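Sample entry follows:

_____
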Amino acid sequence: MEKTKSPINRMGAVFLHVEDLKESAAWYAKLLGKETPEIPEHSPVHYFDLGNGGFLMDDNRNNDPGIRPVFMLHTDDIDEAYAYVKENGGKIVREIERDDMVSFFNFQDPFGTIMMVCEQHG
């Protein structure tokens, strides 16, 4: 079997889905010995950097019901990664979204797991 080069090339964050982002961030900050973060009202997410990885808290206000990625994978080319996922049997459950900082999409593997693929800009 010939090995192919994947445009998905590194692990990102694990997702922690929460109902109240500020309350959850304060609790986890205390647990982890960190300062309580200032979270802007408009932000649906907060990332806790633990040095050797981290996790992304998401209040899901921007997600459709039932679309809860469990982790994020990174790519250097979101369009190539999107095509690659589709070619390999991934079901796209959230189309590519783009802004100045990131581009991302969500997909479901054949076994039901939902993941995000993200390209960071700059």
Notes: Residues 67-122 form a domain with the 2,3-Dihydroxybiphenyl 1,2-Dioxygenase; domain 1 fold (CATH 3.10.180.10). The mean pLDDT is 94.
